[in-house]
Automatic annotation (TrEMBL):
Domain of life where this protein originates: Bacteria
Domain D-alanyl-D-alanine carboxypeptidase-like core, first and last residues per copy: 129-257
Keyword Transmembrane belongs to the record: yes
Protein name (Swiss-Prot/TrEMBL): D-alanyl-D-alanine carboxypeptidase family protein
Amino acid composition bias (Acidic residues), ranges on this chain: 79-88
Organism this protein belongs to: Paenibacillus septentrionalis
Region (Disordered): 37-94
Length: 282
């Protein structure tokens, strides 16, 4: 009887040990599974390993240095190209471009011509004393400012009708020949004087009216430095003969409005350069 009980006890103990061993093995397998899930994927090692991040930064820096770039500098963006300004061909606009390549409409005549209250080298109220109203007011302001500086200007020739320009150009051709005449006088329809926005000026004594000797005078220098403040430009400046098609004319000023005049003066541009059009071939 005692032997039987002892056998039962041994069998029970063996069963208990087997259960415990089975439970321990089960826990080990579960723990191993949890550890595998929590470990980072080998394919993402570069994202989580500080050593790899540092190595990537060093490689990038080395690449920039080899390419001649400063790795600490911020790349400078490329400037946007300046927009092209379309040539103004509206005869009524103060910024219209008029030259042998851009002619005025046939028989164009401004409808707002007035007589500016300024000094001229003649007394008659005739056609060439007139300008368009906006240009005339600007001319009055400019003459007044010049006198404050001790500079006394006088008008020589303002507006010319198409018929007047035709007669004038033909007279120059008869005197000097066509090839020479076109270097200093505009063919009909291409003269800025026909716009009513251009005028030839000189000193009050009129000694160098529309002549080369006007260049270098105190009046010419004052105009070159101050005309833009009143909306005028020296239309045919020195050194731009191959662009404008005309020799240097320090006496010929053209009204384009204050904003544009100041821009052209600051950048040293002619209207042809501003509008990026083909230079005038003479």
């Amino acid at each position: 009887m005692k032997v039987g009980k002892l056998l039962l006890f041994v069998m029970f103990l063996a069963l208990l040990v087997a259960v415990v061993l089975y439970f321990v093995d089960y826990k080990k397998e579960q723990l191993a599974s949890d550890i595998n899930v929590s470990q980072p994927d080998a394919t993402n090692e570069n994202e989580t390993n500080p050593d790899n991040v540092s190595q990537n930064h060093e490689n990038s820096t080395n690449d920039q240095e080899e390419a001649g770039q400063d790795p600490t500098s911020t790349p400078t963006p490329e400037p946007d190209p300046e927009p092209t300004v379309e040539p103004d061909t509206d005869a009524k606009s103060v910024s219209v471009i008029v030259n042998p390549n851009y002619k005025l409409p046939d028989n164009y005549e401004p409808d707002d011509l007035v007589y500016p209250e300024v000094r001229f080298i003649f007394n008659e109220k005739i056609e060439k004393r007139m300008l368009r109203e906006e240009a005339a007011k600007a001319l009055e302001s400019m003459f007044e400012a010049a006198e404050v500086d001790g500079i006394y200007l006088a008008g020589v020739s303002g507006y010319r009708s198409h018929s007047t320009q035709t007669a004038l150009f033909n007279r120059y051709v008869e005197r000097d020949g066509y090839d020479v005449a076109k270097t200093y006088s505009a063919e009909p329809g291409t003269s800025e004087h026909e716009t009513g926005l251009a005028i030839d000026v000189t000193s009050s004594d009129g000694k160098c009216a529309a002549q080369d000797c006007f260049g270098g005078t105190v009046e010419a220098i004052w105009l070159e430095n101050n005309a833009q403040a009143y909306g005028f430009i020296i239309r045919y400046p020195k050194g731009k003969e191959d662009i404008t098609g005309y020799k240097y004319e320090p006496w010929h000023i053209r009204y384009v409005g204050v904003e544009l005049a100041q821009q052209l003066h600051e950048q040293g541009l002619t209207l042809e350069e501003y509008y990026d059009v083909e230079p005038v071939k003479r």
